[in-house]
Amino acid sequence: MRAPHTGYRITSLLAGVVLAGTALAVPAVAAGHPAGPAPFVTAEGVQAPAVVVPKGRVIAKPSLNVRKHPNTSSKPVRSIPYGTIINLDCKVNGEVVEGNPRWYLLKDGSGYVSARWVENANGVIPPWC
User: How many CB atoms lie within 10 A of CB 87?
Assistant: First the structure.
């Protein structure tokens, strides 16, 4: 007489362990402890993830010029005082300023600032434009 086949028992046992682990993780998320940014509800009642805007702090003294294009030959549109926290949209390569070729497009679309004179203010890195 042959020994009974135990492969199905092992498979069932492993599936049970996997499902039990999943079931244990669900209550933590459902209890309001999500792993990412806090969600918000749109006007349509759909829950969407919170969007974190990249922010920078101006380190140029006394101020940083905002330019229409990512180069210093582009006429300044305005300037932003030292220490101001700014919202960034995305980054591009442009004219190299003191060894740094990156420029940030401001979130409001008003122009570009040299990344050489902006330090990260919230740990979020702007995506490429």
Answer: 15
Query: Over 80: is that where the pLDDT of 116 sits?
Result: yes
Q: Mean pLDDT, to the nearest integer, of 13-23?
A: 41
Looking at the fold, whether 62 and 98 belong to one and the same domain comes out as yes
Q: Where are the beta strands (DSSP E) in 12-110?
A: 39-41, 47-49, 55-58, 63-67, 76-81, 85-97, 100-106
Exposure of 119 in the CB half-sphere (CA atoms within 13 A): 6
Q: What is the pTM of this model?
A: 0.64
Cα–Cα distance for residue pair 13/50, rounded to 1 Å: 39
What per-residue confidence (pLDDT) applies to 107? 98
Residue 13, both tokens: 């046992």
Query: Based on the domain organization, do 73 and 107 belong to the same domain?
Result: yes
- Distance separating the N- and C-terminal Cα atoms of the chain: 71
The 10s digit of each residue's pLDDT in 24-42 is: 333 344 444 444 455 555 5
What is the span of the domain harbouring residue 23?
7-49
